[in-house]
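R.M. (postdoc): so does anyone remember the format we settled on? I'll just put the structure tokens first.
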């Protein structure tokens, strides 16, 4: 049974359509990212997946169980870290984890060991007797993550786990997410950070309640740019427009830089890896002396901006 299956899910809040007819599936052991600007509908989607909100229409299945109908059964399979987390500020770090351990019915025989393990893993041991309300933002995040994982859930859902977290801790979190994934846990993570989204195996990009793109980071970039880019440096006294026109595999080209008799061009192709050698050969056949040719790395950020309308 797949960890997450959404079919034509819509959520309306009076006159706001927060989620508009979305469908996607998350496979077992996948690290899946939900990306989108503020108000795109990410948190609403996640809350429906967790069974905390009922869809206006459509169906959500978690490991085959229907949400929210089966939410009592489903809750033990899900570890959820909300965007605005739910720590008990008057309880200590240890007590917070203990509280969630009892909520999720972690057996007494393993509770202590499990809590120690989490304290250790999230560098919380030195804060164990401190009240949650007195912790710094980053430490609170670590604690929130520990509480979400206390019952060792096979599906972990994290709503912006790294927002407001310093770069060092972000790195630790992602290392940890990848470790979890390698252990076979399925993860659904929302983020605003593009460099993080690059770590996801697949992404769904949301905007105004809809999914506007879905696929691997590479597929999404390709879709946004309608192709991939090659950087070619050639030796030429003038712009070799004639020779570039009608090149097979090349859909568009642009001059990036001129440096003496060396020109650097960007060529838009279908597939940067597959088209590299044919384009090189074709250029040489047309008498253009190629000095270097390589794929251009486009950041997901640029692709995302062009998809979500941040740029033209
Ligand atoms: N309980 C609610 N009542 C009314 N409208 C709501 C409610 N919850 C969310 N919305 C609206 O639904 C839309 C989607 O909100 P949501 O919180 O899901 O977006 P998001 O992608 O998580 O945004 P962010 O990146 O800011 O967290 C927004 O227009 C929001 O105002
Ligand atoms: Mg949100």
């Amino acid at each position: 049974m797949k960890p997450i299956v959404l079919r034509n899910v819509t959520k309306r809040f009076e006159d706001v359509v927060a989620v508009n007819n979305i469908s996607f599936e998350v496979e077992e052991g996948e690290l899946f990212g939900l990306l989108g600007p503020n108000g795109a509908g990410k948190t609403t989607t996640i809350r429906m997946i967790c069974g905390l909100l009922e869809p206006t229409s459509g169906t959500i299945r978690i490991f085959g169980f229907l949400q929210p109908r089966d939410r009592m059964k489903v809750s033990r399979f899900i570890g959820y870290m909300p965007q605005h987390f739910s720590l008990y500020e008057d309880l200590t770090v240890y007590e917070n984890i203990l509280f969630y351990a009892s909520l999720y019915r972690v057996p007494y025989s393993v509770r202590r060991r499990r809590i120690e393990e989490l304290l250790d893993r999230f560098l919380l041991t030195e804060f164990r007797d401190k009240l949650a309300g007195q912790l710094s933002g980053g430490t609170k995040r670590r604690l929130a993550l520990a509480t979400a994982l206390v019952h060792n859930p096979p599906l972990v859902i994290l709503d912006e786990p790294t927002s407001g977290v310093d770069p060092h801790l972000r790195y630790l979190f992602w290392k940890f997410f990848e470790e979890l994934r390698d252990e076979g846990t399925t993860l659904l993570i929302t983020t605003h950070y593009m460099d993080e989204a690059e770590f996801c195996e697949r992404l769904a990009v949301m905007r105004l309640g809809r999914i506007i793109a879905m696929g691997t980071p590479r597929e999404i970039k390709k879709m946004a740019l309608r192709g991939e880019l090659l950087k070619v440096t050639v030796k030429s006294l003038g712009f070799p427009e004639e020779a570039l026109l009608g090149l097979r595999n090349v859909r568009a080209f642009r001059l990036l830089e001129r440096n003496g008799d060396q020109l650097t061009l960007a060529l838009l192709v279908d597939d940067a890896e597959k088209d590299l050698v044919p384009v090189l050969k074709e250029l040489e056949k047309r008498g253009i002396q190629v000095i270097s040719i390589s794929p251009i790395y486009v950041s997901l950020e640029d692709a995302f901006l062009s998809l979500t309308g941040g740029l033209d």
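R.M.: ...and that's the designed sequence above, right after the tokens. Also worth knowing: The chain has two domains: 4-215, 227-308. Residues 42-43, 83, 159 surround magnesium ion (ligand 2) (CB under 6 Å).
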